[in-house]
Description:
By secondary structure, the chain is mostly helical. It has eight helices and two strands, in the order βααααααααβ. The longest helix has 23 residues, at 136-158.
Amino acid sequence: MKSIISYGAKEVSPHDIQVKAENNFRNGFFCCEALMSAIREGFQVDVPEQVIAMSSGMSVGVGRSGCLCGALNGGVLALGMFFGRTEMLGPKDPGVNALLALTHELHDWFKANNAKNASCCRILTKEFDMGKGEHKEQCIAYTGICAGKVAEILCRELGVKNIDSEPIGPYVKKESAQV
C-alpha cells in the first residue's frame, strides 16, 4: 500500500519496536501513547509529536472507560496515520477498505494472541485492581506485542525490510517468583 505520510525507515525490527513501546509505557506514557511514539520513532515518520498527544485520550480503554484496549486503539491509529484518508470518497473507496482490512487483521491477531481472546480493556484487566496498578505489567506486554504486530504489518505493506527472523509472538504471562 502507498503511505499518505513520509517515513525514513528502510529496515525495521518489530521486536525493537515492541521493546521501545514497552519501555515507553514503563517510563510514563499510557498504552496508546507508548505504541504511537514507538511506531513514529521506529519508522522515522515525518509527522509532529502531536500525533502522540492525539492518542492520549484513547488509553485505558478510551478515557478509562474500559472499552477497546488502548494498545489496540494505538495500533489502529498508527495504521490510519500511514494509510487513512482525508477526502470524503464514500464507503466503496478502495483505499479506506484496504485500511479497514488491515485494522481488522490487527484486531483479530490481538484477540488471538493476548491469552484472553478479548479486545475489551475491562475483560483484559478484570482480575486486577486497576487502582493499585496490578494490571500494569500485563498491559505493558499487550502494548509491546501490539506495537510489534503493527510494525510487522507496516513492513509488509510499505515494503520496509523486516530484519527480525521470528514473528511477534503471543502474550505469555510471567509467573511471579516464588519466595
